[in-house]
Amino acid sequence: MNWRSMALLLALAAPTWASETNPELELVSEHPVAGMETGNLSGMAWCGDGLWVVSDREDNLLYRLDAGDGDAVWQAQTEHFELPPVPDTGLPWGMRMRTQATGMVRGGQMDFEGLACDRLGNRYLVSEAHAAVLRVSPAGTSQWLNLPSALIRQARASGMLLKFNAMFEGIAVDPDAGRMWLAAERERRGLLVMHRNQSSWQCTGGCVLLVEGGNELPPPALGERPLPISFSALAYFNERLFTLEPNAHRVCRRNLASGKAERCWSYAATVLADSRRYDTPFGNAEALSLDEQGAWIGVDNNAQTRADGEKRPIVWRFAAPPGGWSAK
């Protein structure tokens, strides 16, 4: 087959590819969150018997969500922890200075953007500002993890972590805290993995699992302006990684060994309903947690007011897809 024949076949196939859509997740319930004074819900994890969230504008607070007796509005209960001095993770001096200046203006020097939990109830917070991970115990004590010195170097050599405010945006750990994954947000986005060796973490065969660049079209309701492909959260469930991809308004299941997407599900129908729209072309979903019955997705409204007047952060509950999260 010559190249002209191949080009013709690809052209004929293109409309089929373009028309493929991801199955829609079914919305079960919606919960505005009261009690997060600064808003900016940026990470979420189920820890023990409750759902916990973090704000990227507060450096020493976690929130446990109180669902009450099935109330639509959930109350955020605060837990304070001591923040130890931040380690030097190898980020360039100019980026660190810009991060410090931005944090002083808007609040949140750490810019915590992701939350994960192990079976012992330890919480893991990833700092976008410093490319570091803080572990907070159930007792409220905390320490920065000893991450590999090669982590930042390998990420930047692969094209990630080169842009301000486009750093680590998601974190996941397995229940035994033997493996940890981090998601680089955008331009270029990617997944990195580390393995625990007693009190430190190592890049076993390299930290970089996946790197992707480029733009994609958002759902049709948002027009035809291409947006950067991006990750805003990670979750670990049943030996798979799940990524939250806000500009595409979808959740994707990814292979642990390669990071490649295996199956994706859309939540665009919920997000883009007229009453739930924000005046922005970018997705606001920033937090993800999964279980057998469904998914929790958290919305960082970034001080914006929704079309229906709602100003608080939002948590959505979606039902698991038919056949469950492992369905082919």
Automatic annotation (TrEMBL):
InterPro entries named among the record's database cross-references: Phytase-like_dom
Domain of life from the UniProt record: Bacteria
SUPFAM superfamilies: NHL repeat
Matching Pfam families: Phytase-like
Signal peptide limits: 1-18
Keyword tags: Signal
Domain Phytase-like span(s) in chain numbering: 38-188
Protein name in the entry: Phytase-like domain-containing protein
Annotated organism of origin: Pseudomonas saudiphocaensis
Classification of source organism: Bacteria, Pseudomonadati, Pseudomonadota, Gammaproteobacteria, Pseudomonadales
